[in-house]
Amino acid sequence: MSLPALDNLVRIGQLKAEPSNPAETHRMLTMARTRLEDAQLPGLSQQGRFTSAYNAAHAAALAALRWHGYRSENRYTVFQCLTHTLGWPATRWRVLDAAHQKRNLAEYEGFLDVEDSAIQELCALVSDLIADVEKLLRS
Asked: How many domains does the chain have?
């Protein structure tokens, strides 16, 4: 399903148009569910729980983007596109952007400062994201 705003991102090289692949989309959503389950394991470190929740969010957001026939190599863009792929307001996807920034600090500078409450909030948002992607796939 072509979306004008996303087609504009294709024109400027931020996205690639690529035929939707239902099997790939379902695999990504399955991965998102598994990573969300991992993020909720009580014995996992905070860092492991955060990373799992973040990766679940990325997999689900990418599944929505792929369902519409687009691909991005930029994780931030995948979250920004939730406005168009799922109709998410900026207030929701910006929470994922904040997680992305924390993830980058952890990956590239070895610094992660995250509270349990933030991980729980991220998990709740990712759960909503997965549910919205599931609705999209059924439509």
From this structure: 1
Q: Are 21 and 63 in contact (CB under 8 A)?
A: no
pTM for this model (two decimals): 0.92
Q: CA-to-CA distance for 114 and 102, rounded, in angstroms?
A: 8
pLDDT digits (tens, 9 = 90+) for 27-59: 999 999 999 999 999 899 888 999 999 999 999
At 109, which CATH number? 1.20.120.330
Q: CB-hemisphere CA count at 13 Å for 43?
A: 0
Sign of CA dihedral 4, 63, 129, 103: negative
Q: Which residue range forms the structural domain that includes residue 27?
A: 4-138
Classify 86 as helix, strand or coil: coil
